[in-house]
Amino acid sequence: MALVTGASQGIGEAVAKQLVDDGYTVYIASRNTQHITQTADEIGALPVTCDVSDASALEKMFSELPPIDILICNAGGPPSGLLQDISDEQWQQAFELTFMSSVRMMRTVLPHMQQQQWGRIVCLTSTSIKQPIDSLVTSNTLRAAVTNLVKTVSKQVAKDNVTVNVAIPGMIKTERQKELMDADPNFAKRLEGIPMGHLGEPEDVAHLVSFLVSKKARYITGSQFTADGGYTHTIF
Ligand SMILES: NC(=O)c1ccc[n+]([C@@H]2O[C@H](COP(=O)([O-])OP(=O)(O)OC[C@H]3O[C@@H](n4cnc5c(N)ncnc54)[C@H](OP(=O)(O)O)[C@@H]3O)[C@@H](O)[C@H]2O)c1
Question: Which of 20, 108, 119, 147 is most buried per CB count within 10 Å?
Fold first, then answer.
């Protein structure tokens, strides 16, 4: 049983579709009931309405779902802006959305995975964890925290054959990317910085996630993997 959150469109949808194609029963979640239901119908998944930044909504969702063997933590991105642009309230909201959603979802699904001695968790983050993007101070910061959360938790559950990893999309053709392109005057320059010379497709990230949750990836945990056309310049 798989759960992909933030999956009514974009990367989450592509990941969910790939997992359906791989033969899993897949629940997909997002805030907009109409949109998530329509996407579920289109890709052969099961819809659930949930705002992952809301603790009580998460609790309600998990109370209605069967035990989850494969969890893909994903949601919309936190707000873009420089340090002076982001209010305390926006930081708190971004913390709930990007960080606490991962904490709460992992905490909920792990006991079942550990008990059955098998499980897979993949958190979708961003290349900003390796190479901070100037206009994305919340994403740079909170996704780095998610990465350390993944590393820490992966060590705690490794003996139970539960793997916990991070998948890092580069610049992928989605609605979110369109928003960032419109807001970023340096976008054309960033595009030039992709060695492959073009944006990625959501499926490029989905193929990576498909491998990470597979039985073949049994010895891979606590790691981060990019699907970015070579965009990230760092080796770590
Ligand atoms: N696209 C890229 O190039 C790129 C690169 C690096 C990182 N990322 C990150 O990867 C993630 C997915 O990106 P994307 O481009 O696929 O985004 P997207 O096209 O904006 O899709 C976001 C999805 O998340 C859902 N969502 C948003 N807020 C949610 C919430 N609070 N609770 C539950 N679902 C929520 C949305 O549906 P509803 O509106 O129905 O909730 C939608 O299905 C984002 O965090 C983004 O920052 C993207």
Answer: 119
